[in-house]
């Protein structure tokens, strides 16, 4: 009996020792095997990953520990950044330059694709690029170039981004027919498909529609029956759907866009999801299905509210929502107007920082690398390096100046349109003397004379006699049956401006209203517009338009056409 009790006591201890020994005997490869092919963000992989990390820590195996943190970052959606920071910390202490570069790149990818924090993402990409210099890991170097291309595409530098993606596509395609480990082969195929997708999008942005269609169809053929690339297939379905929309095949567009959506949503790629919703909304618009169009655009608004993120490509959906609720629901009209302003502010805020950072820390650094290489080869080529650096500085300066000018013009246009929309800018403004609080002055006009001139001047304005060229204060006074002195006194005291300013405002207000209400005038030359409102010289008209509206007539016409979708 005593032997039996001893057995009961010793058996659990022996079992624990036996199983723990068996557990320790597992290699890293054996631990990793169950989750190697699991989908990204599949949390079921984490028990194995944590076992892998624990084993690496116990053995002080830093290369395996880095790999363990990378695996955790891949599968634990909620804690990606925590594991990315852990991998970077170990890499900085014990890893190679390649390891450090990869971890900075991974952090950038999390910021960009998961959090849409573009500023933070670009900082990490630049660090990754710096540490990748001289690396023999070609796959990684091209991966860094790919993600920098993504940023350039986001900023609208489509030609520059195109060079990145063409270079990456060429490299990844060259690797497809080589013999690699199945994981490496998968990575090369995935990278190649991602490049194809970006080239498809860029060609569409550049209006190379035939090329874009060709690439999207190629990508779809490659992924159609391949379960390893269901997300990539969805991206190509999205592109085909957008193409069908542009070809006015609205039923086909809806079919492809709706098929693309489930996997994009499953991947939580809310950026491309918003694009799908936008073009679905556009197809419903084209078919006069107002409720479904509004529903799709509300999805974009939900994404904006949840993630504080919106793409320039889709924020015009707010124009439709504002127009839809105009005169129907003032509260919703105001809400969507505020959302549009918020979206515009968010997009504008990111652009200057990203643009300057990219040119300063990447493009300029690339030029500096070229300069150092040239200095090592021959002094003659230093001149070329200097030219490249100077050119880069000029280009950078050009982008900054152009961007600031465009933003200022855009702001002035929006302010002017807001005044017009609120009814604060029309021909009657000039007639409303009683609305203007002017300082009390001593006048030489009797009340009777003031009333008489007012009535005659109102008739002059309403009948638009100011459009006649060459009229003067004296000629108007004669027409009104008074003298130029009395007319001058009235205009100064009642309008608050001198005669020349008064005439300029009449004419510019008149032509501005025509441009805003009748699209045919948007195709007039500046000379024709000046002639229409009675101003003799083109430059004088342009200067007066700018003084009164805060924007040049050419810039106003350009923005108005863009708003109306007129080419």
TrEMBL record:
InterPro entries: HTH_AraC, TPR-like_helical_dom_sf, TPR_rpt
SMART domains (UniProt xref): HTH_ARAC, TPR
Every HTH araC/xylS-type domain range: 455-559
Keywords: Membrane, Transmembrane, Transmembrane helix
GO molecular function: DNA-binding transcription factor activity; sequence-specific DNA binding
Segments traversing the membrane: 382-401
SUPFAM superfamilies per record: TPR-like
Protein name: HTH araC/xylS-type domain-containing protein
Organism, scientific name: Chryseobacterium fistulae
């Amino acid at each position: 009996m005593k032997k039996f009790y001893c057995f009961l006591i010793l058996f659990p201890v022996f079992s624990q020792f036996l199983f723990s020994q068996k557990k320790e005997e597992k290699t890293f490869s054996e631990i990793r095997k169950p989750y190697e092919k699991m989908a990204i963000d599949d949390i079921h992989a984490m028990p194995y990953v944590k076992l892998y990390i624990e084993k690496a820590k116990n053995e002080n195996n830093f290369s395996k520990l880095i790999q363990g943190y990378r695996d955790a970052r891949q599968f634990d959606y909620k804690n990606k950044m925590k594991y990315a920071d852990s991998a970077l910390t170990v890499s900085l202490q014990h890893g190679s330059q390649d390891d450090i570069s990869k971890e900075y790149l991974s952090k950038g990818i999390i910021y960009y694709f998961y959090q849409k924090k573009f500023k933070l993402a670009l900082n990490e990409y630049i660090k990754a690029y710096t540490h990748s210099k001289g690396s023999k890991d070609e796959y990684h170097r091209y991966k860094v170039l790919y993600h920098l291309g993504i940023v350039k595409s986001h900023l609208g530098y489509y030609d520059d981004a195109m060079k990145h993606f063409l270079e990456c596509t060429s490299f990844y395609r060259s690797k497809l027919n080589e013999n690699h480990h199945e994981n490496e082969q998968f990575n090369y195929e995935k990278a190649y498909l991602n490049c194809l997708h970006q080239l498809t999008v860029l060609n569409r942005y550049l209006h190379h529609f035939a090329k874009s269609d060709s690439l999207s169809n190629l990508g779809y053929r490659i992924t159609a029956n391949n379960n390893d690339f269901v997300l990539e297939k969805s991206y190509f379905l999205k592109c085909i759907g957008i193409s069908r929309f542009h070809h006015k095949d609205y039923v086909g567009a809806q079919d492809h866009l709706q098929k693309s959506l489930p996997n994009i949503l499953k991947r939580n790629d809310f950026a491309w999801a918003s694009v799908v919703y936008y073009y679905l909304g556009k197809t419903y618009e084209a078919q006069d299905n107002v409720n479904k169009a509004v529903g799709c655009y509300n999805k974009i608004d939900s994404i904006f509210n949840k993630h504080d993120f919106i793409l320039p490509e889709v924020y015009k959906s707010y124009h439709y929502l504002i127009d839809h609720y105009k005169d129907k629901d003032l509260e919703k009209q105001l809400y969507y107007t505020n959302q549009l302003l918020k979206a515009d502010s968010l997009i504008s805020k990111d652009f200057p920082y990203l643009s300057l950072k990219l040119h300063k820390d990447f493009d300029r650094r690339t030029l500096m690398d070229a300069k150092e290489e040239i200095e090592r080869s021959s002094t003659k080529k230093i001149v070329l390096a200097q030219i490249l650096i100077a050119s880069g500085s000029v280009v950078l300066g050009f982008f900054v100046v152009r961007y600031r000018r465009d933003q200022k013009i855009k702001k002035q246009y929006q302010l002017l349109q807001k005044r017009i929309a609120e009814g604060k800018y029309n021909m009657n403004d000039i007639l409303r003397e009683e609305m203007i609080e002017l300082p009390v002055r001593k006048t030489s006009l009797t009340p009777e004379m003031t009333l008489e001139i007012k009535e005659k001047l109102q008739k002059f304005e309403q009948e638009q006699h100011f459009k006649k060229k060459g009229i003067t204060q004296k000629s108007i006074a004669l027409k009104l049956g008074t003298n130029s002195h009395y007319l001058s006194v009235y205009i100064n005291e009642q309008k608050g401006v001198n005669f020349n300013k008064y005439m300029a405002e009449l004419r510019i207000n008149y032509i501005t209203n025509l441009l805003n209400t009748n699209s045919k005038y948007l195709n007039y030359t500046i000379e024709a517009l000046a002639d229409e409102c009675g101003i003799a010289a083109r430059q004088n008209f342009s200067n007066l338009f700018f003084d009164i509206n805060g924007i040049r007539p050419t810039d106003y016409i350009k923005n108005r056409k863009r708003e109306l979708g007129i080419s």
